[in-house]
Design brief:
By secondary structure, this protein is α+β, with helices and mostly antiparallel strands. It is built from two helices and six strands; from the N terminus they run ββαββαββ.
């Protein structure tokens, strides 16, 4: 599997830095419809991955204790972390 996964969700690019992830499970508690724990005990995107409230999505990413979730806005600027 790749070191990074990316999806466009609610107008934001969400990137998972897989080697950095320690599977704290915090993001899945806030945005369970976006993130899930994969078979390798690393966060991955849910299959459906619907649009959700941007504030909740950014909170789910910013709560990551090791900054493995990166949010990039429509202008290409990294806004989380």
């Amino acid at each position: 599997m790749e070191d990074f996964e990316e999806r466009l969700i609610s107008g934001l690019t969400i990137r998972i830095d897989r080697p950095t992830c320690i599977c704290s499970d915090s993001c899945t508690k806030i945005a369970f419809e976006i993130f899930e724990i994969g078979d390798d005990a690393i966060v991955t995107f849910s299959e459906a991955c619907p649009d959700i409230e941007r504030d909740r999505l950014m909170e789910a990413c910013s709560i990551c204790p090791v900054d493995a979730l990166i949010v990039i806005d429509e202008d290409g600027r990294q806004i989380v972390p």
